[in-house]
Amino acid sequence: MPAPATEFPGSGQYWETRYRSGGNSGAGSYNRLAHYKATIINDFVEKNSIRTVIEYGCGDGNQLGLARYPEYLGFDVSSTAVARCRARFENDTTKTFRTADTYAGEIAELILSLDVIYHLIEDEVFDAYMARLFASSSRFVIIYSSNNPDYNAAYAAQHVKHRVFTEWVSRMCPGWKLADNIPNLYPFMDDDPHNTSLAEFFVYKKALFKSRLRRSPGRHPRTATDG
């Protein structure tokens, strides 16, 4: 008889338990996917003269190790992840790390959400997270995520819930526009799940700001509601 399914402890507790037991942020924060994301974001930061960055979901810091941000504040729901980041970057005065529950109204020019949204299982957690993303940005929000709920049937996992988050933004953030949507340079393949991804880049901007974003080789930005 198969063992009974373990009850999901909640998004926050899941990640704290994962990091505390020695786990990492996942395949998307390592190897070629990490380098791909870093190339896109670093270029965006440089070309748009970004000085301040806040990331919600800094994880274990491996992705951040490839970043070039003048001033960075990273939040995470896991205190273990935050401790890891503080230790890893202890000599880097441009980076600060805090747990998500200590957010105190900080604002930055660029807000980042990388491989986080489809890990927000609870609707109330998703709503609060999304609201903070846009409320804390003065210029841009970059989201790297899936955007298609059909993926839930094909790629089910206890800690994953795919959504059409772009609909939430259109409904709840009328002052923001989707400036760019970049399909993944390494779209998901069943036979190579650790080096491919269902996520894409979605770049939002406030009115009056123009973004200059490096496009992936051989691919062109598009505006879409499907991931």
Outline the fold blueprint:
Blueprint: H1 11-20, H2 31-47, E1 52-56, E2 71-76, H3 79-88, E3 95-99, E4 108-114, H4 123-135, E5 137-145, H5 151-154, H6 165-172, E6 176-182, E7 200-206
Give a quick set of tags describing it.
alpha/beta; 227 residues; seven-stranded mixed β-sheet; globular; single chain
What does this structure look like?
The protein has helices at residues 11-20, 31-47, 79-88, 123-135, 151-154, 165-172, and strands at residues 52-56, 71-76, 95-99, 108-114, 137-145, 176-182, 200-206. By secondary structure, the protein is an alpha/beta fold. Strands 3-2-1-4-5-7-6 form a 7-stranded mixed β-sheet, with helices on both faces. The longest helix has 17 residues, at 31-47.
Arithmetic mean pLDDT: 89
Low-confidence stretches: 216-227
The percent range for strand residues is: 15-25%
Cα radius of gyration in angstroms: 17 Å
Largest sheet: 7 strands, mixed
- Can you list the strand order of the major beta sheet? 3-2-1-4-5-7-6
Can you tell me the overall shape?
globular
